[in-house]
Structures are given as C-alpha cells and as structure tokens.
Design a protein that fits this description.
Blueprint: H1 4-12, H2 27-33, H3 91-95, H4 124-130, H5 140-156, E1 171-178, H6 192-196, E2 200-207, H7 209-216, E3 234-237, E4 246-251, E5 272-275, H8 286-296, E6 300-304, H9 307-323, H10 325-329, H11 334-341, E7 348-350, E8 373-378, H12 396-404, H13 408-414
C-alpha cells in the first residue's frame, strides 16, 4: 500500500484528477467532458470499448460491468484502423482538443521548447512545464505511452540520454516495440521521443498481433501498405534548435510475434526491446523473447500494471531459462550456460510517467495503473552503475539457480522431458 499515495499524488496535480471514494479514477467521465470518449472517429483517443484491457489472444480479463460510464465493445473495431487511410490525422483532428491543450509537434519560429538537454524532464510536472502546457490538458492520458518508452530507454535501460549526443556525434537507435494495440491509433505521438532525445536518429519497429492484422488488410494507397514495401509508416524530424532528431516508425506485418529467426530480422537486430503493459505470463510468445535477450544480452524492459504482478513475473523469469536448458545445452558452452544461470536481479521501479489514475478493478485497492511499474529484464550493463538500489527485486528462483550452477549437466538432464513448445 506504500505506493498508493504516489499514485494518488500523480493524479491530484491535474485539475481533472478526481479520486473516487474507492480510490479509483473515473477517466471515462473526464474523456466525456472533453468530448473524446468513443470508438472510431475520436482521433488518437479511439478505443475498442468493453472491459478487456487487451485483445482476446491472452488470458487477461478486465473488470466486470458495474453501471459506470463506459464505452461498450464495438463489433469490427480494429486497433490501427486509421492506418488504412491514405494519410495521418493532423494534430487538430487527432487530439480533438483546444489548441492550448495540445502538445504540438510543429512550431512557429522561436516558439519551440528549449532543447531537452537543457531541461530536466523527469515526471509529468516537468514535462508539462517544458512543453508549456497547462495541467488542465488531459494529454497525459495518452502521452504515457511515448513517455514510458522514453523512461525505459533513458532511466531503466540507460542506452541513451538527452545530454548524451551532439551535432558532431549523433546516435542511431534501433528500438523494437512489442505488442502495441491502441498505440497504433496514435503513432504521431511517438514523435515526442525525437523532441526528448536531441541529435538522435530513432528507428522504431512495432511487432504484434494488432500490427499483423492491420498490415494484412492494407490496400493500395493506404498508410499501412507502406509496410509491405519495407517503408516507414510515419516519420518526423524535430526542429534544428532542438537537435534535429528523426523518428521513423515501421510496422512488421509478416508475423504476429517477434522472432529473431525471421528473414527480415537480418540486419535489423535491436539496440533495445520494450513493451507496455506486457503481461509476460499471459502470452507464450514472451518466452522466446526473454530467452533471446538473456542469451544475447539485448537490453529489454517492460511495464506492468501492478507491482505485485511484476514481482510474480520476475520470479518466473529464472524458471523460463531453466525450462530452456535442454535446448541450449548443444548450442552454448558450459561457461556460457553457467553465466546464463548466475543470479540476476530484475529491478522493479515506480514509473513517473504512468497513466494518471487508478484503474477500476473490483476488490483491488493496491496500485493498478497503465504503465504503472517498469521491469528491467536485461540491462545495458556497460552503461550501468554497479550496485543495486532499494527497489531491486531479487528473484528467489535466481538465487536457487546460482547454487545449482556447478551442477549444470545434472540440471539439464532433469529438464530433458520438459516441453519447448513455447519457444517455437
């Protein structure tokens, strides 16, 4: 319960941040007040409706009906439906808010924010100030997606930073974003990464079932059709005064799941992999991603709704690795296997860029918010300081794996009969 005040403090700073008697945030009322609650036709705010937080290809269920103001499910709704159009929405069409409430991407000369390396954007208050937005703006209810990616890249994985690069020394950053759904309706919002990371050229490739579905329906002349020609579906360049960073978003529509074995991955291996509200135990496809990143040392971080579920997922990671020992024995040296089985820490941290407001889930009072907590699965070790902070969660299973490391052959033998279906 110690995180409850922190979650409430984030919401209370906004004029629209009303906390209900049960501690939740009735965001639907706020969206309705601003006229942005609905299905198709509501720009970046478009949602499928219903109680399920994700698509039906997982075991995750949402809160039950309770008579609150909610948008019912719409038959035929698809994440990313706007990508079947021939062009992206402009800022006014996408946000559907007053101009003064919109975090704009195109600026009049001299009206752009200061370069991010001169700012200190670490939470919602500092971001709103940097963007010269009034706290009255509900932008945070959508911007938590791109700003969470920023948090994962800069403060969790530490593979980049606003003050790292310069005009003489730019950085190319290849990021794979796994499992996007509603994010497909708001691709221009990820331009914020180019504003926040000066002198950086970002390639953001999205993978997942929703991505696959929308690309497969692409027709000639549509935005999504560009994916079939291996072209970016969205590009943006920040003002030169802010570093002239670039963002190019690609959609991988060939397969539903991320897999390093697919042909298009050749030459496109990521500098980092990220995912929002991942649910590592809800989708079998995560097993292969977790294993790959551990073996190859690819930085990988995700977010989760609740701290408690994040701890459960972290405790399961060593078990995923142990499950793979028979598969790995003939492919890795003994030294590499021992290293893979050595004790690991998976820090869980409170995300300052979480979506404001507690989700409504009956009988749940512990913090449960979209992008609420970050988990570092595999870090960028060369850029990280030694030692772990108080928020680090050490998996009991990892400690057990350490004790068993000298007996790796015996452990491999014991796991010979375990199924590897989840890795294929």
């Amino acid at each position: 319960m110690e995180k409850v005040p922190l979650v409430q403090a984030i919401l209370k700073q906004f004029p629209w941040g009303r906390i209900e008697k049960d501690g939740t945030f009735a965001d639907e009322f706020i969206l309705a007040y601003y006229g942005v609650l609905g299905h198709e036709g509501f720009g970046y705010w478009s949602i499928p409706g219903g109680n399920k937080p994700h698509m039906d290809n997982s075991d995750t269920c949402g809160p039950g009906g309770d008579g609150l103001l909610r948008v019912g499910p719409q038959d035929g709704y698809q994440h990313g439906y706007q990508l079947l159009r021939d062009k992206h929405l402009d800022e006014k069409e996408g946000w559907k808010l007053e101009d003064r409430l919109i975090p704009k991407l195109h600026f009049e000369a001299g009206r752009e924010p200061v370069i991010a390396s001169s700012a200190n954007v670490v939470d919602w208050k500092s971001w709103y100030s940097w963007r010269n937005l009034p706290l009255e703006s509900p932008a945070a209810l959508l911007m938590h997606y791109p700003l969470t990616v920023y948090q994962l890249l800069v403060h969790v994985l530490r593979i980049t930073h606003p003050s790292r690069n310069s005009a003489e020394r730019r950085q190319s950053l290849n990021v794979h974003y796994l499992g996007p759904e509603v994010e497909l309706n708001m691709l221009p919002l990820f331009s914020e990464l180019a504003l926040l990371l000066p002198y950086t050229d970002i390639k953001l490739t999205m993978y997942g079932t929703a991505v696959h579905n929308i690309v497969q329906q692409a027709k000639k002349g549509s935005i999504a059709m560009k994916s079939k020609r291996n072209l970016p579906v969205y590009t943006y360049t920040s003002p030169s005064s802010m570093g002239g960073s670039t963002l190019a978003i690609y959609l991988h529509g060939e397969h539903e799941n991320w897999d390093p074995r697919i042909p298009s991955m050749t030459g496109n291996l990521p500098d980092a992999i990220v995912a929002a509200n991942a649910g590592l135990l809800s989708y079998k496809g995560w097993q292969g991603v977790v294993l790959y990143c551990h073996v190859e040392g690819t930085p990988f971080a995700v977010t989760e709704y609740a701290e408690q579920s994040a701890e459960v997922q972290v405790d399961s990671l060593p078990k995923m690795i142990m499950h793979s020992m028979p598969y790995l024995q003939s492919r890795m040296s003994t030294a590499a296997l021992l290293s893979l089985m050595s004790p690991r820490t998976y820090p869980i941290e409170f995300n300052p860029f979480q979506r404001p407001g507690q989700r409504y889930i009956a009988s749940v009072r512990l913090p449960n918010v979209s992008n609420g907590f970050t988990i570092k699965i595999v870090g960028n070790e060369k850029n990280e300081e030694k030692g772990e902070g108080p928020s680090t969660f050490v998996s009991p299973s990892a400690a057990g794996a350490s004790r068993a490391a000298p007996e790796v052959e015996q452990l491999v033998g014991k796991t010979k009969g375990m199924s590897l279906d989840g890795l294929d």
